[in-house]
Write a structure and sequence with these properties.
This protein has about 900 residues and is an alpha/beta fold. The structure holds one RNA strand of 77 nucleotides. Belongs to the class-I aminoacyl-tRNA synthetase family. ValS type 1 subfamily.
Length: about 900
RNA sequence: GGGCGCAUAGCUCAGUCGGUUAGAGCAUUUGCAUCACACGCAAAGGGUCGAGGGUUCGAGUCCUUCUGCGCCCACCA
C-alpha cells in the first residue's frame, strides 16, 4: 500500500493536484442560500505582469483565507482577472514594435490596437498560469478582464452617470505630463523623488525705471535676481512676482524687467504666494509650466506661454532654443546666461521632483485640456464608512493614512493621451464647436478661471453618451467625432468589486465582498477609489475588511524590482523548494503589515517543514491498521486512558483554538507558527515518540490517526498540495481534503491537569538527556536511575508512565526510592517535584559535578533573592492582584525547596 | 514641513491585557547513520530588549525626549 518515498517531492504532486481540483470544479462558486458567502476579488495583475514575490505573498494570503473559509462551510468565491494596464501595456507593445522599426503612429490607432490585442492574447495570461502554480483556488471560469465588453459597458455607464451628476468636467489645467509616454498622469501616478538639484540665481535686467524712489534705492543694481531650479522655463516667463510686504522690492512693483534671452518685457507683480525667505524673494512666473505660477497667472491675468511640445522639446515660443530637449535647453541657457554675466550664483539644492510611475521620466508640469472628476462629493461616504468602522483596515494604522488622503482629496485627472484603454465616451459636434482639444496654447492665450465644462445641457457641442450618437441633439449635424483620449486605467479598476459580476443575483449574494487583500502601494490608486465607487454606484461598501500586507524586499531592505535586478523569482523557488514551501515560508515571515525581507535560503524553512509533515505522515500511514480506525473520536475519546494520548488531544484542540483566533484576525503568520510548533514540537518530538511504545494498541492507533487526520485538515490552507497528497495515501480518509470540513472544536479534550502531568515527564526526560550529554554517556548505552519524589500524584504519574522515560531517555531500570544511601556517588539532578540520581560510577568527576550543582544552586538563589524582595515589599502585596501575589508565593516556596534539595545533593557529592 | 513604521541572540524575526525565568528559525559547538525524517534526532552556548528620562508595587511591553534606518504625504520658485 505504502509507496511514499522518504523525501517529499513537490514536483510530482503539485501540478497533479491542481489539475484534480480544477477538473472537479472545486474552485467554482455558486449562489447557495444555505451557506454564507465569503468573497474576495483578486487585485487584478497587469497583463504585462510576471509573477513576483509580492504577488506570491498577496495570493498566498488570499488562498489561505479562502481555503479556510471553504472548509468552514462558507460559499467561497475568489474572482480572478487581469487589468489592461493602459500605459504599461502600450509601452510594452510599442517597445516590441520599435524593435521592428515601427512606430504606433505608422500603424494608426486601429491597427495598433489590433497589435495590442494580439499581444494580450499571446502573453496576457502568463501571470495567470503562474498564479496557478501557487495553488490559487480562483474560480477561473469567472476570469475577467478590465476591457471585457460587459466591463467596458460599466466603465462608460459610470462616466455618463458622473457627467450627468456634474462630477466630471473638462478643463485647462497644469497636470503631470510624461514627455516620454506623452500623456497626462494623475497626481498618484507621478510620485515625487528627492533629487540633488541646483538652484540657479538669474539676473533679470530692469527696464528703464519710471518710479523715481525705486531708482534711487536700486541705483547700484540694475536688475532683479530670481531663483529657479528649472531655468529652461524662463523662456515662458510672463512676470516676476514678489511678496507685497517685502520691503526690498516694494518700490519695484509695477515696474518691468527685460526677460533675458527672449528680450521680452514682463511686469513685476505682487502676490502673497511668494515666500520672502526663499531664494531672493523674487520669483519668475511661468504660468504654462508650473501649477503655482498658473494660479498666479489667473490672479493677475498673465499671458500663458507654452514653450514645449508633448515630447518635452522646446517649441516655437522658445526662440533660438526651439528644437532642443528640455534638459539640453537647460544647459544651453545656463551657458548663454553665464556668457552674458546674468548668473549670480548656482547653489546645490535638494528638492523633490515628480517621476512617471511607468517609465521614471521626470514629469513636466504641463498645461493642457483634460478631463477631471470632482472627487470631494464621492469621498464623503467613503470617509464616513471608515470612520464608523463599517470598513476596517488591518493593521489599523492605515486608517489614518487613508482618511488623511481622503479628506484632502483633489480632483482626479482621468484622461490619457494614449490609445490602449477605454476611449472616453464623449463626442463632439463639429458644427457646434471646433474641437479644441489639442490646440495647446501658443503665445498669449488668455485663460479663464471658469474654464470648466460640466453640464450636459449646455449647448457646447459636447455629447456624453455610452454609444456614438447618430446626430447632434442640438443642431442635428452628423459631423460628429469621438474624443481621442482614453481613460486612466484606474478609472476601470475602481469598479472591480462589482463590475466583475455579470449576474444580478450573484452580485446580490456575493457583494459586498468580505475582504480585500493588497499592498500598501495602491491604497490611494485603488483601495480608496473602490470604496468611493462602491458607495456611489452600488450604494454599498465594496468590502468589509482591508488587509494591507507589507512590501517584499531583498535581504538588504531594497524593494524587489526588475530594474534593481534583485528579484527572487517565485517560479524558481517553486521549482527548487515547491509551491507549498514557498507559501509556508513567505507567510511565516510576514507579520501583519510589516515589510518582508527575503533571501533564497529562507525558503528552506517551509521546505523542511513540508518534509517533516510528509515523513511523520508516512511513518503513521505505514503503521496504521485501517480496520480499527472508524470510530467517532467524540465518543471514543471518553474511554482513552493513555496519558500521552490525552495530552496530544489536549494540545491539538488548544492549537485549533489558537489557529482559528489567529486566522479570524488575519494573523496568518501566527497561525502558521502555531501549527508548525504543534506539529513539530508536540506531535513529532513527543507524541509520535511516545506512541512507538504502544503503537499496537487500538487506542494509540485511533489517536495517531485522528490527530494526524485533523492536523492535515488545519494545515491544508497553508500546504494544499502536500496535504492533498498525504490525504490520498491516508487509509480511510477518502475524497479530497480540500472540500472536507474544518475540524470541530471539542473543548472537553483540553485539560490543564493533563498538560502539567505530561510536563513532569517531559522535564524529567529532558533533564536525564542533559545529564547523559554532560557526562558523555554514549547514545546507545542505557543508564539506570533512581527517582525520589515526595509529591504523591507526581510519583504515581511517573510510576505509571515509566516506560516513556525508559524509551526516550535511554534508561534501563528505574528505582523509586526515598533512601539517600542509594544516591551516593551518583550524578544528580533536581527538577520540580522530582530528584533523580544516576549511578555512573567512575566516569564522574566529583569536582565537575560539584561545580554543576553549584551553578544551578546559584541561579536558583539569585531568583529567590529577587522574589523574596518583592514579597517583602508591602506595596507589592497591597497593590498587585491577589493571584499574582499568590503565584509569587508559591514560586518562592518551590524555589526554597529546590535549593534545599540541591544542597542535599551537594553534600552527597562531597561526602 | 507633516505623518507612519522599525530598532529584542551573530543573522532573520515572534513576543497577547504591563506580572518578574524574553522565545523561534538559521548559524555556532558537542554527540548520533537510530528501524518516519540528516530537509533529521539529542544536548549546549549565546541577550544591559537602540540611548536617556518618566509613570507603576512591577516595563521588552505604557508616556516622553533623543539617535539610527526605512517609508508615505505636501502647490520645497
Amino acid at each position: 500500500m505504502n509507496q511514499m518515498p522518504p523525501r517529499y517531492n513537490p514536483k510530482e504532486t503539485e501540478d497533479k493536484w491542481y489539475k484534480f481540483w480544477h477538473d472537479n470544479n472545486y474552485f467554482s462558486a455558486k449562489i447557495n442560500t444555505a451557506k454564507k458567502p465569503f468573497s474576495i476579488v483578486i487585485p487584478p495583475p497587469n497583463i504585462t505582469g510576471i509573477l513576483h514575490m509580492g504577488h506570491a505573498l498577496n495570493n498566498t494570503i488570499q488562498d489561505i483565507l479562502l481555503r479556510y473559509k471553504r472548509m468552514q462551510c462558507y460559499e467561497p468565491l475568489w474572482m480572478p482577472g487581469t487589468d489592461h494596464a493602459g500605459i504599461a501595456t502600450q509601452n510594452v507593445v510599442e517597445r516590441k514594435l520599435a524593435k521592428e522599426g515601427i512606430k504606433r503612429q505608422d500603424l494608426g490607432r486601429d491597427k495598433f490596437l489590433e497589435e495590442v490585442w494580439k499581444w494580450r492574447d499571446e502573453y496576457g495570461s502568463t501571470i495567470i498560469n503562474q498564479l496557478k502554480k501557487l495553488g490559487s483556488s480562483c474560480d477561473w471560469q469567472r476570469m475577467r478582464f478590465t476591457m471585457d465588453e460587459e466591463y467596458s459597458e460599466a466603465v462608460k455607464e459610470v462616466f455618463v452617470a458622473l457627467w450627468d451628476k456634474g462630477l466630471i468636467y473638462q478643463g485647462n489645467r497644469i497636470i503631470n505630463w510624461c514627455p516620454r509616454c506623452q500623456t497626462a498622469l494623475s497626481d498618484e501616478e507621478a510620485p515625487y523623488k528627492d533629487l540633488e538639484g541646483q538652484l540657479y540665481y538669474i539676473r533679470y535686467p530692469l527696464k528703464e525705471i519710471k518710479n523715481q524712489k525705486s531708482k534711487i534705492k536700486n541705483k547700484e543694481k540694475n536688475h532683479i535676481v530670481v531663483a529657479t531650479t528649472r531655468p529652461e522655463t524662463m523662456l515662458g516667463d510672463t512676470a516676476v512676482a514678489v511678496n507685497p510686504k517685502d520691503k526690498r522690492y516694494k518700490q519695484l512693483i509695477g515696474e518691468s524687467v527685460i526677460l533675458p534671452l527672449m528680450e521680452r518685457e514682463i511686469k513685476i507683480i505682487a502676490d502673497s504666494f511668494v515666500d520672502p525667505k526663499f531664494g531672493t524673494g523674487a520669483v519668475k512666473v511661468t504660468p504654462a509650466h508650473d501649477p503655482n505660477d498658473y494660479e498666479i497667472g489667473l490672479r493677475h491675468n498673465l499671458d500663458v506661454v507654452n514653450i514645449m511640445d508633448e515630447g518635452g522639446v522646446l517649441n516655437i515660443n522658445a526662440g533660438d532654443y526651439q528644437g532642443m530637449d528640455r534638459f539640453e535647453a537647460r544647459e544651453a541657457i545656463i551657458n548663454d546666461l553665464t556668457e552674458r554675466k546674468l548668473i549670480e550664483k548656482i547653489e546645490p539644492h535638494a528638492h523633490s521632483v515628480g517621476h512617471c510611475y511607468r517609465c521614471s521620466t521626470v514629469i513636466e508640469p504641463y498645461l493642457s485640456k483634460q478631463w477631471f472628476v470632482n472627487m470631494k462629493p464621492l469621498a464623503k461616504p467613503a470617509i464616513e464608512a471608515v470612520k464608523k468602522g463599517e470598513i476596517k483596515f488591518y493593521p489599523k494604522r492605515w486608517t489614518k493614512i487613508y482618511l488623511n488622503w481622503m479628506e484632502n482629496i483633489r480632483d482626479w485627472c482621468i484622461s490619457r493621451q494614449i490609445w490602449w484603454g477605454h476611449r472616453i465616451p464623449v463626442y463632439y459636434c463639429r458644427n457646434c464647436q471646433a474641437g479644441m482639444k489639442y490646440q495647446i496654447p501658443n503665445y498669449k492665450l488668455q485663460i479663464n478661471s471658469n474654464d470648466k465644462i460640466q453640464n450636459s445641457r449646455q449647448k457646447n457641442g459636447i455629447i456624453v453618451a455610452k454609444a456614438r450618437p447618430e446626430k447632434c441633439p442640438d443642431c442635428a449635424s452628423t459631423d460628429i467625432y469621438q474624443d481621442e483620449d482614453v481613460l486612466d486605467t484606474w478609472f476601470s479598476s475602481w469598479l472591480w468589486p462589482f463590475a466583475t459580476f455579470r449576474d444580478k443575483a450573484e452580485l446580490n449574494y456575493f457583494y459586498p465582498t468580505s475582504v480585500l487583500v493588497t499592498a500598501q502601494e495602491i491604497i490611494f490608486f485603488w483601495v480608496a477609489r473602490m470604496i468611493m465607487a462602491g458607495f456611489e454606484f452600488m450604494g454599498k461598501k465594496p468590502f468589509s475588511d482591508v488587509y494591507i500586507h507589507g512590501t517584499v524586499r531583498d535581504d538588504t531592505g531594497k524593494k524587489m524590482s526588475k530594474s534593481l535586478g534583485n528579484i527572487i523569482d517565485p517560479l524558481e523557488i517553486i521549482n527548487e523548494f515547491g509551491s507549498d514551501a514557498l507559501r509556508f515560508s513567505i507567510i511565516s515571515l510576514t507579520s501583519v503589515g510589516q515589510d518582508i525581507y527575503l533571501s533564497k535560503n529562507k525558503f528552506e524553512y517551509g521546505r523542511n517543514f513540508a518534509n517533516k509533515v510528509w515523513n511523520a505522515s508516512r511513518y503513521i500511514i505505514m503503521n496504521l491498521k485501517p480496520e480499527e480506525l472508524s470510530v467517532d473520536l467524540c465518543i471514543y475519546g471518553k474511554s482513552i486512558s493513555g496519558l500521552a494520548e490525552k495530552w496530544i488531544l489536549s494540545r491539538f484542540y488548544e492549537t485549533l483554538a489558537k489557529i482559528e483566533k489567529a486566522l479570524d484576525n488575519y494573523k496568518i503568520n501566527e497561525a502558521a507558527k502555531t501549527i508548525y510548533e504543534f506539529f513539530w514540537n508536540n506531535f513529532c518530538d513527543w507524541y509520535i515518540e511516545f506512541s512507538k511504545l504502544t503503537i499496537a494498541n487500538n487506542e494509540t492507533q485511533v489517536v495517531l490517526y485522528k490527530v494526524l487526520e485533523k492536523t492535515l485538515r488545519i494545515m491544508h490552507p497553508f500546504l494544499p498540495h502536500l496535504t492533498e497528497e498525504i490525504w490520498s495515501n491516508l487509509p480511510g480518509a477518502g475524497g479530497s481534503i480540500m472540500i472536507k470540513p474544518w475540524p470541530h472544536m471539542q473543548k472537553n479534550f483540553i485539560s490543564k491537569a493533563i498538560d502539567s502531568q505530561m510536563r513532569i515527564i517531559i522535564d524529567l526526560i529532558s533533564s536525564l538527556r542533559n545529564a547523559r550529554s554532560e557526562w558523555h554517556v554514549p547514545d546507545n548505552s542505557r543508564i539506570d536511575c533512581i527517582l525520589k519524589i515526595k509529591d504523591k500524584s507526581a510519583r504515581k504519574t511517573l510510576e505509571e508512565n515509566q516506560l516513556y522515560i525508559k524509551k526516550l531517555a535511554g534508561v534501563a531500570n528505574i528505582k523509586f526510592s526515598d533512601d539517600l544511601k542509594d544516591a551516593s556517588g551518583c550524578v544528580s539532578g533536581v527538577i520540580e517535584k522530582v530528584d533523580f540520581y544516576i549511578p555512573l560510577g567512575d566516569v564522574v568527576d566529583l569536582e565537575k559535578e560539584k561545580a554543576r550543582l553549584n551553578k544551578q544552586l546559584e541561579a536558583s538563589k539569585q531568583q529567590l533573592k529577587g522574589l523574596s524582595a518583592r514579597l517583602k515589599n508591602k506595596e507589592f502585596l497591597a497593590k498587585a492582584p491577589r493571584d499574582v501575589v499568590e503565584k509569587e508565593k508559591q514560586r518562592a516556596q518551590q524555589l526554597n525547596l529546590l535549593i534545599k534539595r540541591i544542597k542535599i545533593n551537594l553534600s552527597q557529592v562531597s561526602s
